[in-house]
Amino acid sequence: MVSLARSASVRPATREEPETLAGLRAAVQACRRCDLYGHATQGVTGEGPAQARLMLVGEQPGDQEDLAGRPFVGPAGQMLDKALAEAEVPRDRAFVTNAVKHFKHELRGKRRIHKTPNTGEVTACRGWLDAERSIVRPRVIVALGATAAMSVFGKPVAIGASRQKAMQLPDQALGVVTYHPSYLLRVPDAVAKAKAYAAFLEDLKFAWGLVA
Ligand code: URA
Question: Which parts of 152-192 are beta strand (E)?
Answer without folding.
Answer: 167-168, 174-178
